[in-house]
Design goal:
The structure is a homodimer. The first copy, chain A, is 38% helix and 18% strand. By secondary structure, chain A is of the alpha/beta class. Chain A folds into three domains: 204 residues, Aspartate Aminotransferase, domain 2, CATH 3.40.640.10; 122 residues, Aspartate Aminotransferase, domain 1; 76 residues, TusA-like domain (Translation Initiation Factor IF3). In chain A, the strands form three sheets. Chain A has a seven-stranded mixed sheet, with helices on both faces. In chain A, helix 2 runs parallel beside helix 3. The longest helix of chain A has 39 residues. The first copy, chain A, is globular and about 75 Å long. In chain A, 51% of the residues are buried. Chains A, B: Keywords: Transferase.
Chain lengths: 416, 416
């Protein structure tokens, strides 16, 4: 009875029938099960899968498995704000498309996706759209005529250990893996009843305050978006300024190492994230920032959970400039190793982790005449993203990259 | 740090290295992941899988998936106590055996399996043994040189939402499904940290009292095993009388419908189980009782959690005879439909659910001469198990079964 009541409450918040919704052990498991189930259920139609380039790793890794099985995956690009274009989704649809996936909003930069419009073009083509609503479900139901929806309770402030998988009636769905009759055969294992009840109750509770709290948090994140570039030089605020989640704001600071900045802010009592939280143990820059083509250097993501006091935001804005300055001072101390050749100045940044290659580029660009070329040698993968991003911010020309004896040579022409 | 501490505590209780142990969302998921990972990791050796006939449904359903993929599965039979024979496991091993699975103790009848000895023959053959230790881990570590172990926290009195998967170093293991770096890539999804910490703490707590509590509960279950056949006529106590879990006792009552008896006992304040709890929504009898060849009719499983007061057991023994008698009276009221033919008396029990076919057989057997045959027509699957089991209990001869125009005809010869 508790399980039924929780299912009804969650279904009401999602806007679906209770028998379309099952509880999974996490949002990640909901995505894995949802994608695998639709892909298997629609195998006769074909194996083509569409995802956006900025999906959560659970979606992209499911796509990798599907591709490794021999199927084709189309990754739809995003613009500089992190948003997909509805036309790109429409263009990606094929007669053999089994499934399209699109997040309701991005987990790193907060940009909201045009889910309703994408659902419409998918529906017209007879292709189910799976919406990863992990970031937004606490704020409200997902717009439009989607087919499958996934979410995660801890993202809306509920307990760990509960995800939602909603499959609309009429969507062909073949659960994969060993048979288990619990949760309509879509979520194996003993039901975590206490957590499920808490998840449904917390969803109802956050929804009751969502409209009012969204206005308040949006004002606070607007303040961060406006004030950070005034307080800190060489900063790029990323994500869509309007179509975005209320409580997430992300910016990147030139000449700053994100990890070091996180430690500085942590010492001041602020727990923020950098790059992509889900791949933070790898040293490659966030796939989201890379897909957006924005600076990943010194990336900071500030998440304001519901109830965050205004005073905390004000204190963060007081602390941030000093923290960034301290990191820049620390990183900027060493002198670049340069070699002047006939046609270019070579900066040897091999073995140095970003943002050092960009810092060294910035230091030497004033030493070559306008029109001259600098070759930055780097073996840090992040340089591939950050050197072009720096050029765009500093109005210098990014010429391109070449393989070098060691690492890669990034060519920059001084324009100003 | 909390996660590391929980892992160390759990590993100490299991008797493994902390880096061999991961937390999964349930015991079922631990089994699914463990079996799939070893079967994939040892694909080059072959695809042969060995399981016992009385494993938990999570093991048997994983075996079904493996078989559906084209591999061979050997199901090792059990004796009438529910125990496997070590020699049967040894005989089942083949050069292409990828994995053998054996529970530490049975979840329905409490019989302990010879895990240590089976681990030894598997080790000698170079085949990893996966032990489903869900039933026993709270009582102590699993004996012997096993390779993979699974367990479930709620089974030892911990919270829902936590399972354990232990893979010994040196076992080839290839996690299946989408990449996820958490829990060594073996348990995708956001870690349920509060539940994991509680699981480790509760395991430590139950272990501290396990030795003493096992003695006390064993005395109580011994009492049930001894007294029930004295108090209730036509009862078969099942499971090994010695090698068994301290807190589980199972018996079957002739001429009783298990579900109805459960309701009677529930009204008296006792929550017991019948047949197989994991397949209770299906109407077929428990696969465990079927594999043991014992009566499934009127099956009752009594689980005494640690701390169960002696007075509760005494009250149960007071209530049980009346409850069984009430059900027998209710079910025994209708008269059997019989047709006398030249060579047999036909009992038409078509459309009647067990135990009715057995009750009708018992009613009419006195009406035919010794040496005569009765044909019981039944379309209830449970009759296939219960009619032979009744014959064995009542010293009548079970001749065999034949397809009938409708349902199946079960042939019984009166011997006494």
């Amino acid at each position: 009875m508790l399980l039924d009541a929780a299912r009804e409450a969650a279904a009401e918040a999602v806007g679906c029938r209770p028998d379309e919704l099952v509880f999974t052990p996490s949002g990640t498991r909901a995505v894995h099960t949802g994608m695998a189930g639709v892909l298997a259920g629609r195998r006769r139609v074909g194996g083509h899968l569409i995802v956006s380039a900025v999906e959560h790793s659970s979606v992209l890794h499911s796509a990798d498995v599907h591709e490794a099985d021999g199927a084709t995956v189309t990754q739809v690009a995003v613009d500089r704000t992190g948003s997909v274009d509805v036309r790109s989704y429409a263009d990606a649809l094929r007669p053999d498309t089994a499934l399209a996936c699109l997040q309701s909003a991005n987990h790193e930069v907060g940009t909201e996706q045009p889910v309703g419009a994408v659902a419409e073009v998918c529906r017209a083509a007879g292709v189910p759209l799976l919406v990863d609503a992990a970031q937004s479900l606490g704020w409200g139901p997902v717009e439009g005529d989607w087919s499958v929806l996934t979410a995660s309770a801890h993202k809306w402030g509920g307990p760990a250990g509960v995800g939602l998988l909603v499959v609309r009636k009429g969507v062909r769905f073949a659960p994969q893996g060993p048979l288990d009759e619990r949760e309509s055969g879509r979520a194996a294992g003993f039901e975590n009843l206490p957590a499920i009840v808490a998840a449904a109750a917390s969803l109802r509770a956050v929804r009751a305050e969502a409209a009012q709290e969204a206005v308040r948090l949006r004002e606070l994140t607007d303040r961060i978006r406006a004030r950070v570039p005034e307080l800190v030089p060489d900063v790029e605020v990323v994500g869509d300024p309007e179509r975005r989640l209320p409580g997430i704001v992300t910016f990147s600071c030139l000449y700053v190492d994100g990890e070091t900045l996180l430690h500085e802010l942590d010492r001041a009592g602020f727990s923020v994230s950098s790059g992509s939280s889900c791949t933070s143990s790898t040293l490659t820059p966030s796939h989201v920032l890379r897909a957006m083509g924005v600076l990943s250097e010194g990336n900071v993501r500030v998440s304001l959970p519901p109830g965050t006091p205004e005073a905390d935001v004000e204190r963060f804005l007081e602390v941030l400039p000093g923290a960034v300055a301290a990191v820049r001072e620390k990183l900027g101390a060493s002198l670049p190793i340069t070699i002047a050749t006939e046609d270019a100045l070579i900066v040897d940044a091999l073995g140095k982790r970003c943002p050092i290659p960009v810092i060294e580029l910035a230091k030497v660009i004033g030493e070559v005449p306008v029109g001259a070329t600098i070759r930055v040698l780097s073996d840090d993968e992040a340089a591939r993203l950050d050197i072009p991003a720096w050029c765009e911010m500093r109005n210098q020309e990014y010429v391109g990259e070449e393989p070098a004896t060691e690492g890669t040579a990034y060519l920059v022409r001084r324009l100003s």
